């Protein structure tokens, strides 16, 4: 067995690998960029080596630096996690050349399965069902157009070296093909260093079902059943579950048998995932094989009781598989929700900034093994703590919440409840959106397809009644004001009692919640730890909890005493002018309109379009002088490994385009300026 293991990754997967390795008695080495100097994986590993600047190409993707770090620390093996170098054949070869064990499959398997087109050609002789398409080497526009006409529309363009939802475009007609090709090829080149694409017939309303396989160096190959990954937005998975809902035993056996055939076709060793599309008739088609550990591997661990990272390490050390196919069974049901720093209200655009408050429910972190974590049934794999930053340089996923229960319904309810207990304040996130997805009837029913989220076009709607919402917002505003004026800044309640005895009976505050604006008119009285919030037409009473003096953010917790939410706990957390309001399992985010920050032109249309995040301008779709319509594409911005198209917020005339293609811009930089006198209302 290895004595020292280098983990060539970051974030939650680096922490996850470290937990298992240290439990096996293996010393671990972390690598990091300067942006991750304070990251948890750096603190938790036995040793840490800085690779360089924040850009991945200068740090996590720099093969020479990673190999040098392993040699410097005496590491006998490298675990690549997922992403970065995990499916890089050149890196696997570099490990072999340096006589360092690469914890993953052989170089040839990575090369073959790393190309979606080569993978299909490899497995076709084994009788694996394939989606009709074009997988050839000729990438000329004429050839791709001719093949697209042969296949028929709608079809999908896919980067052959793709993964993680990047390098994928749906084309509904011939007129869309060229622009989609150029965009897909550009994104593929930037993300994977390879612009080669393939074409596939689009399967209508498919389910995305994948099978976990393992193979050792002794010729043994097994599968650990399937996962359903159909809940996707922008071709990226957000909630996964295992086992897949509604499969017959015959289908399950066919999936497993076919996945094992795929692994055998390339003499596979280690952990791999074979991905399929399942159509409405029950027929399935091979898509690709990911030659690494998957983000969603915890749901398989929860239903089988095995530690898949331990399996990877043992197989790399030459040990046989620890179980046979006959001894691997499904126990219960598991879900995983991916927690992202992103804004669901703006097309899931990634968000950056410091997470001022990160609180989790009673969970067991990174626990695996037989029945591990099942007492609570809740597991959290995360890279986050209060005070850590979400960087613009890497994927915005900050964690994964995993739940297990004997039945699917119980596991899903547990996930919804756990999401309601999580707190992530300071950065836009998808927690409320994920919970609303869990509760959506079509998702809860199971058997949904990959288009579910696009069809729903949902935003989380708070079920906090308007009166309770307004009263608690008023209470939060009073407490915040009192904290700012109180000498005892750790206890905003210390001088609330009687503080406003001479104030007007009602105070007005203005708020925004997404596209809704409203005002609260309230007056607060506190006797002991009972608060009475008097509004225009109603009063609400609350029991307030003692203030935690160590709390860095202004915060009030307690219980609503009357009204529709009587008996529900509430949690009010301020971050700047943003108020996170939680009542029972419901939550919403309110923006207080600070009078000091209100501009004269507020309420009118913006004069232009600004960058929602740092990035690079990759395309400009309009010219100075153009008349544009609301919703028309204006600028293409590349950020966090993805391309984002910024659309016009209004009708108008383009007066200036300050930043051409190739410019790096910071968040808030104006990219399009409209002519003031020609802009439509």
Automatic annotation (TrEMBL):
Pfam assignment, any one: CPSase_L_D2
Domain Biotin carboxylation stretches: 1-458
Protein name in the entry: ATP-grasp domain-containing protein
Keyword entries, A-Z: ATP-binding, Biotin, Ligase, Nucleotide-binding
InterPro entries assigned to the protein according to its UniProt record, in alphabetical order: ATP-grasp, BC-like_N, Biotin_BS, Biotin_carboxylase_complex, Biotin_carboxylation_dom, Biotin_COase_C, Biotin_lipoyl, CPAse_ATP-bd
Cofactor(s) listed in the protein's UniProt record: biotin
Domain of life: Bacteria
Sequence ranges assigned to domain ATP-grasp in this UniProt record: 120-317
Signal peptide: none
Residue ranges occupied by any Lipoyl-binding domain in the UniProt entry: 599-675
SMART domains, per the entry: Biotin_carb_C
